[in-house]
Amino acid sequence: MKYDAAPLPVAARITIASDGSLRPDEDARARLAQHPGSFELILDHGGVILLRGGAHARLHMAGEILGRMAVMEMINIIASSNWRGELHVVGGDAVRVLHFDQGALKGARSNAPTNRLGEVLFREGILDRGQVSLLSAEIGEKRFGELAVERGFVTAAQLYQGLQRQAEDIFFSALVVAEGFYAFMVGDEPEEAATTMHLSVQALLMEGVQRIDEMALFRERIPSSSLCPIRQPEPTSAKQLDDGSERVLALCDGERTIEDIARATGLGEFATTKAVYHLLQQKLVTLQTAKRVDSAKVEALVGRFNAVLQDIFVAVATYGGLDQTRATLDAWIQGSGYGPFFGEGVDELGAIDPAFVVRAIEGVQTEHPLEALHQALHELAAFALFSATTTLPRDQELSLARDVNARLKAIRIG
C-alpha cells in the first residue's frame, strides 16, 4: 500500500458470518485487492484478528494508540534499540510511515495533505500556490520534486532541504497522534521508500517534546496562525531581540498572518509562532483578526453592480417613477435583511455606498463574505429591475431587462 495518495478509508469494515465467510464492504474490498494471495491466521483473540501472507515483512510489534505519549514511547524504544524497519502510524484519517535504521530517521512518507512536499515547500516560502498547483497537475511518471527542479522552481539543494523538512513534519505530526494504531515492521527497505537521509531520532524526539509543550503554551495567547500581528511603539523596557524575532517583527504590519510571515521568513510555523509569543510578552505587537476579504475586490464588485443599478434608475427617471422605485428598493433592503450589507438604502442615483459595504462586510457573520455579497447584490439588482416594470412601457421594460440580465451574468467574483 502506498501512502502518498488520498487518505485511507478508515471506516472500511469486514463482516465475518457465522459460517466463517467474509463479507468486506466496498472500501475494504478495494484495500484487500491490493494484497492477493493466501494468508495464515496468526491471532484471533479479544476481537483482534491478525493475518500474515506468504511474502511479508516481519511484524516486530503492533498495538492500539491509547494516549498522546504512545507513539513517542514506541519511537524511543526503536531508536534506543537501533532497530531497522518501518513504523506505521494510523490515526487522524491518515497513515504516516517512518523508516528507521541505527537510531536515525532515514525517510518518511504520509498521505496527509499537509505533509505533501508541495505544501511543505509552500509553507517554507520556496514555492507559491500557483507553482504548487501547476506541478501537482503534472505529476505522472515523474515525482513532484523532479518536476520542480526541471521547471527551475527549486534547486537540487532546496529540494533536498525540502525533503528533510517534509520528513521532520511527518515525524512531528506522527508524535501527536493520540488515537489509532501502530505497527513496526522489520525487513528489507521498501522499494517505495522516500529519499534516504540521516536525521538523529533522539534530537527529533527532544525537539518534538519541546514543540508539543511550548505550542500548548503559545496557543493560550495565540489561538490561531491565521491572526495578524501588528507592530506597536517600542516600550523603553524592551529587550534586545534575536535575529529571527527581528525578522518577524519587521513584517508585523497587521496585514500578514502568522502563516504569511512564516512563509516570508522561511522560519516555519513553530519558530514564527514562538517569536510572536515573545514579541507579545514584550508588548511589541498586538494581534488582530485577518481581513477576510480584499477591500479592493469589494469596491470593484459593488462598482459593477452600481453601474447596473444606475442605468435602471436612469430609465425609470425618464418616465417619472424615480421616487417610487427608490422608496420601494429601500424598503426591500431593510425587509430582506440585507441592511447590514447596504445600510439605509441607495442614493439618489440608485447606487450603494462602496465604503459602507467595505466596513460592514467585516462584521457580517458568514463563512464566505464575498460570495454572500455577490448574491445579495444580484438580488438587489433583480428587485430593482422588477420595481422598474411598474413605470416603464412594455417595450422599454423588455429592452432594459435584456440589457440588465446580460450584464449581471457577466459579473463574477474576482
What this model shows, in words?
The protein is an alpha+beta fold. It is 49% helix and 16% strand. The protein has 16 helices and 12 strands. A 6-stranded antiparallel β-sheet has the order 5-9-6-7-8-10. Helix 7 crosses helix 10.
Question: Briefly, what is this?
Answer:
The chain is an alpha+beta fold. The chain has 4 domains: 1-56, no CATH class; 60-211, no CATH class; 223-289, Winged helix-like DNA-binding domain superfamily/Winged helix DNA-binding domain (Arc Repressor Mutant, subunit A, Orthogonal Bundle); 295-410, no CATH class.
H and E string = EEHEEEHEEEHHHHEEHEHHHEHHHHHH
- Identify low-pLDDT runs: 1-9
Average pLDDT level: 85
User: How many beta-strand runs?
Assistant: 12
Note the total helix count: 16
Count of structural domains:
4
Helix content range: 40-55%
Strand content: 15-25%
Largest sheet: 6 strands, antiparallel
- Shape field: extended
Gyration radius over CA? 30 Å
Main β-sheet, spatial strand arrangement = 5-9-6-7-8-10
Structural class: alpha+beta
Separation, N- and C-terminal Cα atoms:
41 Å
Q: Keywords for this structure?
A:
414 residues; alpha+beta; Arc Repressor Mutant, subunit A; 6-stranded antiparallel β-sheet; two-stranded antiparallel sheet; 12 strands; 49% helix; extended; disordered N terminus
Write the layout of secondary structure elements.
Elements: E1 14-16, E2 22-24, H1 26-32, E3 39-45, E4 48-53, E5 58-65, H2 70-80, E6 85-91, E7 94-101, E8 104-110, H3 117-123, H4 129-138, H5 144-151, H6 156-175, E9 180-186, E10 199-200, H7 201-221, E11 227-231, H8 243-250, H9 258-265, H10 268-281, E12 285-289, H11 295-318, H12 322-336, H13 339-342, H14 354-361, H15 369-388, H16 394-410
Antiparallel strand pairs: 1-2, 3-4, 5-9, 6-7, 6-9, 7-8, 8-10, 11-12
Helix pairs in contact: 3-4, 7-10, 8-10, 9-10, 11-14, 11-15, 11-16, 12-15, 15-16
